[in-house]
Request: fold
Amino acid sequence: SANFPGGCIFINLTVELSDQCPHLAAEVSDGFGRFKSMLRRFLEQERLAGALKESVDIDGAVEVVFSGLLGACVMYTADKSKPNLDRAMGALAAYLDNLCIT
Reply:
């Protein structure tokens, strides 16, 4: 984008600039941890509400969703393909749907 021509500033700070700006990378990493905690709380709430299968490994699901979102961000930064981004988000949505009781 015009504001961050190098791509996603969060990924750049944690992956590409971690040696040069470790304090900023640590802050972003903390933010990622808080985001994963939010995802975990959401899935736990869904389980308590009876919408999530009891067999779901919540920690594993959090990792899949978080990694999928980061991967989609990296790939979109690389190829700027909306269809590829939509496909990645659709795969994550389908994964989450499979965790739910139907």
In short: The chain has one domain: 9-99.
